């Protein structure tokens, strides 16, 4: 099947490569000529302009956008003058599902189709495949099945869930039609909210393990510092990389995220490469906003989001105010780190 791809970054580029391996024809557009020429050498059809890009696609066109959520609307605006009735725009990035609903309505008025595909797989997707959650008109999603099936991990990627033998559908392939416009990105939004919570849980747990030798350290003894009552209980110098590795094998908390944790700790046990500043791309915030609107409690996911804010120093003023208040009411001087 022929497909156009705009957005040749870490995920979009590898998606093109996976599609090429699956014998699909990929027409690509990007702003960096050296990137385009590189993919052209791998078999893609490169386009130097939006107009040329659209011209090289056979109607009805299927155009996949893998661009940041903030530039999706602008990219669609650039494409629209060159498109025609029944063309399909696919947003595979991390757009807000409410924006999907609006875009689908606007494109429908022009006789065009919009499909939102929440895509998970990251830089590993080229080899592992991509888990995809799809929203839009069901018949249009079905039309895209050859592309989706190639991008997905495939049934052999994980052991079968007992009882699934008589259940039909594409979920075991690694992609799912979730519902009307916005449904795909809604499911992916919550997926990423859960991801925040899982990552935070691993981070906090390993931090507790890392400080299991606190009883060996010298602690200040004064009125300002809570004493460690039983230092003899915290005498463990633990190998975190080995713990992550053993947990990967038979543990109930085994997961791909734990696999990645084990790899990171083996490569750099002190994680010296990282500053600890953790970004959030929007989905965690949108998940919490949806939870509030629904009245669905989400304390773990909320805490994980706030932890990311704190990692970027957003709580610095609040911490200073706490210190200032302690000094004001009790004359408590700050202690060194």
Structural class by helix and strand composition: alpha/beta
Record field, number of beta strands: 8
Spatial order of strands in the largest sheet: 3-2-1-4-5-6-7-8
Elements, N to C (H/E): EHEHEHEHEHEHEHHEHHHHHH
Question: Key terms for this structure?
Answer:
12% strand; 8 strands; 337 residues; single chain
Summed up:
With 337 residues, this protein is of the alpha/beta class. 45% of the residues lie in helices and 12% in strands. It has helices spanning 10-21, 33-41, 50-55, 72-79, 97-109, 125-128, 138-143, 145-151, 183-210, 240-247, 256-267, 283-294, 299-311, 316-330, and strands at 2-6, 25-29, 45-47, 62-65, 88-91, 113-120, 131-135, 175-179.
Overview of this structure, please?
- The protein is an alpha/beta fold and 337 residues long.
- It contains 14 helices and eight strands.
- The protein has helices at residues 10-21, 33-41, 50-55, 72-79, 97-109, 125-128, 138-143, 145-151, 183-210, 240-247, 256-267, 283-294, 299-311, 316-330, and strands at residues 2-6, 25-29, 45-47, 62-65, 88-91, 113-120, 131-135, 175-179.
- The chain has an eight-stranded mixed beta sheet with strand order 3-2-1-4-5-6-7-8, with helices on both faces.
- β4, α4 (72-79) and β5 form a beta-alpha-beta unit.
- α9 (183-210) crosses α12 and α9 (183-210) crosses α13 (299-311).
- It is elongated, with a radius of gyration of 25 Å.
């Amino acid at each position: 099947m022929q497909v156009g791809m705009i957005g040749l970054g870490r995920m979009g580029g590898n998606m093109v490569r996976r599609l090429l391996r699956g014998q699909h024809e990929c027409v690509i557009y990007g702003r960096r000529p050296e990137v385009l020429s590189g993919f052209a050498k791998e078999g893609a059809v490169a386009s130097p302009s939006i107009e040329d890009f659209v011209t090289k696609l056979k109607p009805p066109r299927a155009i996949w956008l893998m661009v940041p959520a903030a530039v999706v609307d602008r990219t669609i605006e650039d494409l629209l003058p060159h498109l025609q009735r029944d063309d399909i725009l696919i947003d595979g990035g991390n757009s807000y599902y409410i924006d999907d609903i609006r875009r689908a309505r606007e494109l429908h008025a022009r006789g065009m189709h919009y499909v939102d595909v929440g895509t998970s797989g990251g830089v590993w997707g080229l080899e592992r495949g991509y888990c995809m959650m799809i929203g839009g008109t069901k018949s249009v999603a079905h039309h895209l099945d050859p592309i989706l099936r190639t991008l997905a991990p495939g049934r052999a990627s994980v052991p079968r869930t007992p009882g699934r033998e008589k259940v039909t559908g594409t979920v075991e392939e690694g992609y799912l039609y979730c519902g009307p416009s916005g449904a795909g990105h809604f499911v992916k939004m919550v997926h990423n909210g859960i991801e925040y919570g899982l990552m935070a849980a691993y981070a906090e747990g390993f931090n507790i393990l890392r400080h299991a030798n606190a009883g060996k350290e010298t602690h200040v003894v004064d009125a300002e510092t809570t004493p460690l009552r039983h230092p003899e209980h915290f005498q463990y110098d633990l190998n975190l990389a080995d713990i992550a590795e053993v947990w990967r094998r038979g543990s109930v908390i085994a997961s791909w995220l734990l696999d990645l944790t084990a790899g990171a700790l083996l490569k750099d046990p002190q994680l010296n490469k990282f500053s600890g500043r953790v970004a959030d791309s929007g989905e965690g915030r949108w998940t919490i906003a949806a939870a509030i609107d629904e009245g669905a409690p989400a304390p773990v996911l909320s805490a994980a989001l706030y932890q990311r804010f704190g990692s970027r120093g957003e709580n610095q003023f609040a911490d200073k105010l706490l210190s200032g208040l302690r000094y004001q009411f009790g004359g408590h001087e700050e202690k060194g780190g």
